[in-house]
Amino acid sequence: MKFYLLLFLINIVIINDVAAQDANRNDVIIDEIFADPTPQIGLPAAEFVELKNVATIPFNLAGWKLSDGTSTATLPNFILLPDSFVIICATSAAVSFVPFGRALGVSNFPSLNNDADIISLRSPQNKIIHAVSYSDNWYQNVLKKEGGWTLEMTDTKNPCSGFTNWKASADPKGGTPGKINSSDAINADKQAPKLLRAFATDSLNIRLVFEEPLDSLTAATLANYTISDGGVIQAAVCRPPVFDEVDIKLKTILQSDKIYSITVNGVTDCAGNIIGSKKSVRVGLSTLPDSFDIVINEILFNPRPDGVDYVELYNRSQKITDASQLYVANRSTTGVISSIMQLTEIPLLLFPADYLVITTEPAIVKQQYISLNPEAFIRALTMPSFPDDKGDVIILNAQGKNIDEVKYNDKWHFKLISNTEGVALERVDYNGSSAENNFHSAATSVGYGTPGYKNSQYRMDEKIQGEIKLTPEIFSPDNDGVDDFLTIDYSFPTPGYVANITVFDALGRPVRYLQRNALSGIKGNYRWDGLGENFQKLSQGIYIIYTEIFNTDGKKKQFKNTVVLARHS
């Protein structure tokens, strides 16, 4: 009897001693998330969050809080030993998870969003111990993000990294609750943090958004921030729970539609990496756009079989616009504006002459088309329906005013394109009307689309005469890195020209049919590698580049240019 009493008292002392331990940030981490249990693969059909103690001492979780910002669960008395796990779930689901490991059922367990959410873990002292801001693209698997699989942290010693340190579970059951993650591997954070964007919440306050969580001490150091035009910063606060945003308070007010630049130095992420070259962004006070301030600049309504729709916008005004104040829509069969969708819930500034691409799958669009401006993309959870034959694309402001509308039709495409699948319609002139005569198929030379950058069919100057220019005048295709190919630059007066380019030798014999019926933009280029039609090596000498262009209006023009092909012995 005395033995059991002594053991009981020892356990009380141990529990009290553990309870006295004050956890630091990232001592206990969220290392597995089950946000979407449907369809069921092999795990119980209930959401859970797994915690792991990565410290060297145990912690009593009594009084700790798990929250998604809407609901907060208070954890019961439980000793979490070093290098061990515990499954946190709803009270009703705890019995189902017991076969997988130690499970704690709690009341008011947060309802985890399938697409994106923020989960935070706080100690009884209200200190943020760990937080995760996940999204469904973290699965990095199109099928698994549809449900039934958990998100696993790859390297639990790198708890601050997001997308690069998480992926869908590879376990056949769909997840690994109560044990080491199937994706467990070394994945140290050696990348410098990046400043992604900034926006003004009012005339005296700016919010900076970083790619990853920061060290809160360096992020709150005033000397690490400067703003252009003599602005003075009087406070900096790193925002919990994720610590990937910093609030800056100014002493002098921002002027409307004036573009400022803010620069960050000395700030580190929680792995100790100091901010690198991506440390300056534009910022300013936004104003609500009016009619034709923002125009629909490019539309892909008939994507490839494995592609997705996209709509590109262009800010042709001198205003700074917040994309969260813009909506995209279509019209119903009765002509009523419908399927209204907010571009983004997160403030995102669109500066004068900026482009913005809206699509459900930016990664697919970037893969299928040249991506010169990857930061111009917004990932929309859903998009209005844009039929392949004809339809309406409408942009509204936050007051419901029609900013721009394009009633597109597949017949607007260039008449010589037999298959318009995957071909975007581009606006020819930013200042022109949103009608058929101001849209044209994207050029062949750019892969039939220019999402995020200047259109291939943009009319730079209607007075420009057709021109072909060859560079260099002498080229030597020997792969030595110097003048290895010929560049054929072109500029045409209007879009819609088709080019045929043939290479002739000095005797007038055709040796290479370089382009046949290639739809060309206003400006662009083609290349010749110095090889013949059968990709054979040609002898050195003078060659003639014969270019013939024509359009559906019957306009034609021919160009003859000479170039010297040299060979080094």
What is the end-to-end distance? Answer: 101 Å
CATH-defined architecture of the largest domain: Sandwich
CATH class of the largest domain: Mainly Beta
Hey, roughly how much beta strand do the residues contain?
35-45%
Mean residue pLDDT: 91
- Spans of at least 5 consecutive residues whose pLDDT stays below 50 are 1-17, 460-464
- Number of separate structural domains: 4
Rg to the nearest angstrom?
A: 30 Å
Main sheet: strand order: 8-7-2-1-11-12
Multimeric state: single chain
Structure description:
It is a single chain. The protein has 569 residues and is mainly beta. The protein has four domains: 19-168, Lamin Tail domain (Immunoglobulin-like); 195-283, Immunoglobulin-like (Sandwich), CATH 2.60.40; 294-446, Immunoglobulin-like (Sandwich), CATH 2.60.40; 467-565, Immunoglobulin-like, CATH 2.60.40. The protein is 6% helix and 37% strand. It is built from four helices and 39 strands. The strands form ten sheets. The protein has a six-stranded mixed beta sheet with strand order 8-7-2-1-11-12. It has a six-stranded mixed beta sheet with strand order 27-26-21-20-30-31, with no helix packed on it. The protein has a five-stranded mixed beta sheet with strand order 33-39-38-35-36, with no helix packed on it. A hairpin with a 4-residue loop joins β28 (390-397) and β29 (402-409). The longest helix has 18 residues, at 2-19. It is elongated and about 90 Å long. The termini are far apart.
